[in-house]
Amino acid sequence: MAMLLEKHPFEPFLPENAHILFLGSFPPQPHRWCMPFYYPNWINDFWRIMGLIHFNDKDHFCIPGEKRFDETAIRSFCSAAGLAFYDTACEVRRLKDNASDAFLEIVTPTDIPSLLQRIPVCQTLVTTGQKATEVIVQSFHCAIPPVGGDINLAVNGRIIRFYRMPSTSRAYPLPLQQKAEVYRKLF
Question: Whole-prediction pTM value?
Answer without folding.
Answer: 0.93
